[in-house]
Amino acid sequence: VSRSANQNETTLPLADPDEIGVGQTWRQTVSMTLPAPSFGSVQWRVTSSGAGPTVTSTSTTSHRPVLLIVIVLLLALDIGFLAIRLLVRRHAARAATQADGVGPPHDPSPENEPIDVESWEFADSAV
Q1: Residue 40, by phi and psi: left (phi above 0), alpha (psi -120 to 50) or beta?
Q2: First to last CA, the chain
Q3: Is pTM, for the whole model, over 0.70?
Q4: 112 vs 106: CA distance, rounded Å
Q5: Strongest mean pLDDT among 2-11, 30-39, 117-126
Q6: Helices (H), 1-127
Q7: Residues 14-58: pLDDT tens digits?
């Protein structure tokens, strides 16, 4: 088992099949657990030798932790939204502090004038 043809990570032992007759096949399944998160491809190579010529078989499997990638992308997207929200709030707070000194234009209508209670005469006091 290896990551590439030039690298050998581990050797897995196979049981001795004893004698295999002409035209017969032998099959053995060997399980291996790869450490998580496994990303990329792994090559499975088997070399058989004995009475005849050496036979080599190679199989490649690919692993991609899709759920981990999705979670990391969602986390990055969430952090981006938080940063944008922080910038918008900071901009709004800065605009509000600058607007406090300016205020709306003064409206001279009598409804907006302050009332002087001491000099105010009631209509009923003349009676």
Answers
A1: left
A2: 111
A3: no
A4: 9
A5: 30-39
A6: 66-100
A7: 777 777 778 887 788 877 777 776 777 777 777 777 667 777 878
Cα(39)–Cα(62) distance, integer angstroms: 8
pLDDT at residue 62 above 60?
yes
What's the token pair of residue 28? Answer: 């053995």
What is the C-alpha to C-alpha distance for residues 108 and 114, in angstroms, rounded to an integer? Answer: 11
Residue type, 42: V
Neighbouring C-beta atoms of residue 42, cutoff 10 Å: 17
CB 114 within 8 A of CB 120: no
105 burial type by CB count under 10 A (0-12 exposed, 13-18 middle, 19+ buried): exposed
CA distance 102 to 93: 15
Query: What is the amino acid identity at position 24?
Result: Q
- Round to whole Å and give the CA distance between 38 and 66: 11
Distance CA 54, CA 73 (A): 47
